[in-house]
Every structure is written in C-alpha cells, then in structure tokens.
C-alpha cells in the first residue's frame, strides 16, 4: 500500500469512565486501547512492514500523550525516514505521520 491510515482504540482502560458523556456512547471496543492505551499499535506496526511500499506513509490517530511511545513501537518493526506529529484544534498531539524507508 502507498498509505495506511488507522484510528485504533487508544484510550487506556482505566480512563474510559472519565470520558465525556457523548463519547461514552461509542462502543467500548472502539475506545479501549488496553492498560496503557497503545496495545493496538504493536499489531499495526508488525503488519506495516509487510504491506507498506518502500515510499509508503502511515497516518495514525494517537492519544495526546502517546506520540513517543507509538514512535518507539514502530521503530521495533519498521524503518522510517521521519515521524511528524500533528496537533488537533486544542493543541494536543493527535495524528502521527511516518514515512517508510527500505531496511
């Protein structure tokens, strides 16, 4: 693939009960990112190496405090030329972009 885009569940399990009321209507499995909120990124990273073209780009929605942990996870599975974090309208880290390069 040229591009892989994902919005995985990224909220830590213990934080689900503190979400805004309107968010709590979403299915639990769409929100719960496991104990530390990053469990799905390992699965995504392990598959990106197999499916992403040499010049491919990965875009991931992340929690406001997860950029470095997610980058570290991806470093274990794929080589990339750079990672860039984009902020949402409130100034919180929200999207991570990584460009693939051949190992």
The general outline is: elongated
Radius of gyration: 14 Å
Runs in which pLDDT lies below 50 for 5 or more consecutive residues are none
Taking the sheet with the most strands, its summary is: 4 strands, mixed
Q: What is the helix tally?
A: 2
**Termini Cα gap:** 17 Å
- Helix and strand run: EHEHEE
Q: Quick one: how many beta strands?
A: 4
Spatial strand sequence of the major β-sheet: 1-2-4-3
- Given helix and strand content, the structural type is alpha+beta
Helix content: 10-25%
Overall average pLDDT = 91
* Beta content: 15-25%
Give descriptors for this structure.
alpha+beta, elongated, 2 helices, 103 residues
SSE topology sketch:
Blueprint: E1 3-6, H1 39-51, E2 57-61, H2 67-77, E3 80-87, E4 93-100
Parallel strand pairs: 1-2
Antiparallel strand pairs: 2-4, 3-4
Helix pairs in contact: 1-2
């Amino acid at each position: 693939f040229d591009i892989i885009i994902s919005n995985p569940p990224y909220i830590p399990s213990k934080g689900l009960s503190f979400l805004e009321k309107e968010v709590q209507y979403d299915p639990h499995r769409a929100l719960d990112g496991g104990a530390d909120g990053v469990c799905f990124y390992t699965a995504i990273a392990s598959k990106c190496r197999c499916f992403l073209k040499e010049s491919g780009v990965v875009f991931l929605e992340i929690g406001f405090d997860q950029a470095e942990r997610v980058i570290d996870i991806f470093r274990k599975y794929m080589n990339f030329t750079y990672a860039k974090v984009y902020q949402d309208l409130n100034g919180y880290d929200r999207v991570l972009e990584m460009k693939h390069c051949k190992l």
